[in-house]
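Operator note (shift B, R.M.): manual run for N-(5'-phosphoribosyl)anthranilate isomerase requested after the automated queue skipped it. Running by hand, logging everything below so the morning shift can see what happened. Input copied straight from the record, untouched. If output looks odd, do not overwrite the archive copy; leave it for review.
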Amino acid sequence: MALVKICGLQTLSHVEAVAKLPVDYIGFVFARSKRQVAPRTAGELIRAMRDASAGTASRPKAAGVFVNPSMDELEAVLGEAPLDVVQLHGQESPAFCSEVKERWPAVQVFKVFSLSGGASGEAGDGGAFRLEPYRGVVDGMLIDTFDPVYGGGSGKTFAWDAIPPYLEWCRGAGIPLLVAGGLQPGNVGELLRTYAPDGVDVSSGVETEGVKDLDKITSFVERVRNDV
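Run finished. Output pasted below as returned.
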């Protein structure tokens, strides 16, 4: 069954509602974004998430989204927000990812690679071969559509036929591959049926006028869980 990550939550009511759905990750954005949350706020939301999901069949993990953070920034955020996953969305090196894992062994590290939304198979990182240095130093991979301002979160899809080499590499490395970029309730089923990634990550595709929409979130989760 595909993993589901709902990213960019900012309010208590949304976090408590989504925590009761069969989702695997709830994402909190610490990078520069309209969805950015302060570390202390995120800490409060994460505690509410865990309280709300207590007793449910699935308890989501808290993922923090960063773009080229320093170790000091990570330390400051993790001191306030008890994250389960650090998701690195910039140009973080394998050595940096390894250091994060060494300093916070209880926290998983996901590395994001951004792909062009244009030509089929074009990858902004130079292709799947660039993944090899990350073998053994990350716990998951995510591919998203490149955005020149924020790195990701553009709400646009990339050419999905670029997925197979990444998926093959991740399967060989024994880590999950999540796909993001322009996903919404109407197309996530097609993605999963055609390319079968290990998980999906959505943010703007479950929003209405820039605000998280619980009906769209519920529909997205239902499509993943029931239609595939």
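Quick read of the result: The first helix runs from residue 12 to 19. The chain has one domain: 3-226.
Leaving this for review. - R.M.
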